[in-house]
Design a protein that fits this description.
About 45% of the residues lie in helices and about 15% in strands. It is an alpha/beta fold and about 375 residues long. It has a seven-stranded mixed β-sheet with strand order 2-1-3-4-5-12-11, sandwiched between helices. It has a four-stranded parallel β-sheet with strand order 7-6-8-9, covered by helices on one side. Helix 2 crosses helix 11. It is elongated and about 65 Å long.
């Protein structure tokens, strides 16, 4: 009996070591995410690793703590370990120096959801149609205020926020939103309180509404300043907020102002379908978010990496190569890379189930079910 047990133990240990060696010997994909204070990046990192390992690759994830110097060290570590593909959600253009190192080493780089600016050393970018994200945010404000029925004699009032100027997507979000809102501003039915860059090309004014580092405290402080300044004698009807983290901070500032009791908060946009914002939308506080199914983005990124590594034609289900006017989404400032785009979805109180149906809240399933009740 002891002999049989011993044989079984040897077989089990052999199987374990074979499996371990097979996994550790796989091609390494290095995954560099920007930070953890925006929850979506934690989820993205986990999804990317899971998808890569599901295809037999070895995958390692590092988070840059919103510090580009730290992220550069993490990427250099991937290169030292012999990574063949890097998937990089960068913090700012300071990442370009290590992307150049990757290029010299023949390592393929995929810019993930954020373009890597001022670099000619990579060829691939995968993201959502971020101009359309902004259009959906703008359209949600049009719908929420019923601007098509509004008149210049009784205008609605809006204030504008933008994302971090270190994130190239922030410009696309803003320009997409303003492509929808500018006609209503031009006609006088919508009036802007505070700085108003017509597009992000007005960089000086854009910087006045931008939120460095996507930091919620900065957005809250600016909203408090607006409420005590330009908006002191006006009741705001809407706020263009570029993502959910900032939207909640902005609305927190509004709730402290007597002009905005529960049920009378401004129509406020968002993005990323964060669970806390989904709850806020259900309560009637935040008006909308934009759902970017990051599980699909992670899956698409690993399909792209797999096709690159196997010298296969690029064909990513659910993604299209940006062409025509949209090709500029892939403009790094030094070259135009191949940009593969997935479609976002506008979410309001009427379709909160979209995220549940997609399994977006699987890690919080019980709360997700409560969300639908």
């Amino acid at each position: 009996m002891r002999k049989i047990v011993a044989i079984l133990m040897v077989l089990l240990l052999s199987a374990f070591f074979v499996g371990s060696c097979k996994k550790s010997g796989g091609t390494l994909i290095g995954i560099a995410m920007p930070e953890t204070h925006v929850l979506r990046w934690v989820k993205d990192g986990a999804s990317l690793q899971k998808e890569a390992e599901g295809k037999g690759y070895r995958a390692e994830v590092q988070y840059g703590s919103a510090d580009q110097v730290e992220q550069n060290k993490q990427i250099q570590s991937f290169l030292t370990q012999g990574a063949k593909v890097l998937i990089v959600g960068c913090i700012n253009e300071g990442v370009a120096s290590v992307i150049a190192e990757a290029g010299r080493d023949g390592v393929a780089v995929i810019a993930y959801d954020r373009i890597i600016s001022n670099s000619a050393d990579y060829d691939y970018y995968i993201t959502f149609n971020n101009f359309k994200v902004g259009q959906l945010q703008g359209q949600s404000i049009v719908n929420g205020l019923n601007l098509t029925a509004a008149s210049a004699s009784a205008p609605k009032y809006i204030t504008l926020f933008a994302g971090s100027p270190t994130d190239g997507n922030a410009f696309f979000f803003y320009d997409g939103a303003m492509s929808i809102l500018n006609p209503y501003i031009d006609s006088g039915v919508l009036k802007v309180i505070g700085p108003y860059p017509r597009t992000s090309d007005d960089r000086d004014t854009f910087m006045r509404i931008a939120t460095l580092g996507w930091e919620a405290d900065r957005a809250k402080q600016r909203m408090e300043n607006l409420l005590n300044g330009d908006a002191r004698n006006v009741t705001l009807n809407a706020i263009l907020a570029p993502n959910d983290t900032l939207a909640r901070a902005i609305l927190e500032a509004c709730r402290a102002d007597a002009k905005y009791p529960a049920g009378r908060l401004p129509i406020t946009s968002g993005q990323d379908a964060e669970y806390d914002s989904a709850e806020s939308i259900k309560r009637g506080d935040q008006y909308s978010t934009v759902f970017k199914d990051t599980a699909m983005l992670a899956q698409a990124a690993i399909i792209l990496a797999d096709q690159i590594l196997n010298n296969q034609p690029i064909n990513i289900p659910g993604a299209v190569l940006a062409t025509g006017d949209l090709a500029r989404i892939g403009d790094t400032g030094m070259k135009v890379v191949n940009a593969y785009l997935l479609d976002p979805i506008l979410v309001t109180r009427d379709n909160l189930n979209v995220m549940i149906d997609a399994g977006f809240y699987d890690d919080r399933l019980d709360r997700g079910i409560l969300l639908l009740n």
